[in-house]
Every structure is written in structure tokens, then in C-alpha cells.
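The record is kept unedited without comment:

——
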Amino acid sequence: MLLLRLKEGKKFCDSFTDFLRNRSKLEDDYGKNLIKLSQSGANIDESGSLKASWDSIRKGTEYVGNIHCELAKKLNDLLDRTSKFREKYKNERLKVDDKMKKSQKEKKVAYENLNKAKKVYEQRCRETDQCQELYDSKSSFTQKEEERLKRSLSKSKTYAENSDSVYQSSVKILEDCHKKWASDMEEACQVFQNLEEERIQFLRNEFWIYTNLGSTQAVDIDEKYEDCRKVIEKCDHNYDIDLFISQKRTGSERPAFITYENFYFNTKSSLGRSQFKINESSIDEGDYTTIGQVRSVSSSTLSNFAKVLYAYDAQSNQELSLAVGDVIEILKIEDDQWGIGILNGRRGAFPLNFVRR
């Protein structure tokens, strides 16, 4: 039973080493896959707090992958210690086991020799008794027969005495073997108990280390994810949109519409207001156009309307004074600053940034 117990203990150690080996491989493979996964999406064109959140997720994934790889190394160290202990446990067990088998074998041989010696001894005793009975049963016999019987009786007694000596010696040998076997068994039991105590204590400590490794890993991973959560909490869509606008903006105003330009009303103008000139034939200084003229101009140019947003005082007779809420009929867009239109029956130039089309 003791040997069976030790063999089962060895199987348990083997199972634990296989468990550690497989767990270490799983952790290493999983960690490497996480590290590889963390590299994906690194070149995505994103900015702002969402980009920071995504980077924290990727870096957190890489960190977790490294933790799993580090755990795999620590599990390998645990595996090495367990394997060495298993070999030591096995060698100590085999050493005592061999000694016990040898002692048991000696005891078995001594017991078999004892049985043989006992059988020979009993056989010799029976032969001696038979010779003695034969000798005593005859009242008269010849001298030759008497001498023959005496020789047989003497020989039988000698054989019986020798077998008795061998038998007693076998008993003594068996007794010594039994004492030695009992002593070896007692010693083996003590060794086996020590081995079992050491095995249980060792595995208990290894289980404790294994559990602490898993617990520490879980805490480290949770702390990293907590850091990720703190970054994600700062993710704000308003901030990201404002940042995108500030980085990618192309201007504060919409591009001007492409308008129709009548060849006969096309006048050249410079970019500055001070150099802005209007064809005298189209606008007479201080004159107002008639309804017929307005219709004539409107029919020969692209007409649309704009609402005045800000008041404007004309700086010359060629410009229109604007009041908030007025509606101007736009006749022509000279450039990105000035246009020509009709307001209250009068034709003139006006600033485009004071109106909304």
C-alpha cells in the first residue's frame, strides 16, 4: 500500500507538471497573439480624444500581452522546480524501493530454504524411525543382517542430525532475515512518510505560488484597463469635431457661386474698393433707373436676390447705401468683395460681405 501510495504521488506530480507545461504554452501563445493584435490599426487617420482612446486600447492590449508572456516565463520556472522535485522524489522512492525489494527477496529465499530444510529433516526423521522400528521388530537375524541394519540405522541418524542442523540454521537465517526486513520496513516507512510530507508541502507551496501569479496578473491587467477607462472617459465628440475643424478648415466663408456674366455689361474692376470703377453708361452719377431700365437690365443679366445683414453707408455715388433687412437684386458679381445690384430702383455697387444670398 505504501508503494502504491508513492506511485500515485508520482502520477500526481506528473499531472501537475503537464498542467504547468500546457498552461505556460497557452499563456505564451495568447500573449504573442495579443501583442500582434495590438499592432493593427496603428496607422488609422484619426485624431483627438477618440485617437487617444484607441491608442490606449492598443497599448493596453500590448501591455496585457506582455503580462501573459511574462506569466508564461514564471510558469516555466515553476515547472522546472516541480520537475526537479519530481525526479528527486522518484530517485528517493526507487532507492528505498530497491532496498525493500532486496530485503523482501532475502526473506523469501530464507523462507523457501527453511521449508526445504524442514521437509528434508522430517524425511530423515521418518527414515530413522523406520530403521529403528525394523531393527527392533526382529528378534532374531543373522549377523550380516544385524550389521546391515545397524549401518542403515546409524546412517539414518547421521542424516537426521545433519538435516536437523540445517533446519535449525534455516530457522535462524529466516529469523535474521525477518528482523532485517522488519528493520528495513520500519526505515522505509519513515522515509516514505518524510517523502509524502515533503511532496504535499512542496505541492501546496507550488499551488500557492501558482494562485498568486494568477491573482497578480489579474490585478495588473485590471489596473491597465482602469487606465484605459480613464482615457476613454475624456473622449468628447465636441472636442474632436472642433479639433478637426481647426486642423482641416479651408476658410470661414463658402466659395462664391459661379454667376452669369453678360458680355455687354462686363466691366473691369480691380480688387480694391478705391480702384473699383463702373461703366458710366450703366450707372449715371446721382441718377435713378426707371422700371423699364430695371427690367431691361434684369432680362439681360443673371438676377438673384440677397438680404442685407449689416447697415452700410455709401462712400461714393457709385455705391448703394444699405439698411438691415433690405433686399437687393444682384445683377453682377465683380469679385469676391463687390457686386452690382438694384435697391429701391437705384443701381450701384455694394459689399458682398454685408449681405446674405
Q: What stands out?
A: The helical segments are 2-38, 48-137, 143-233, 237-248, 291-300.
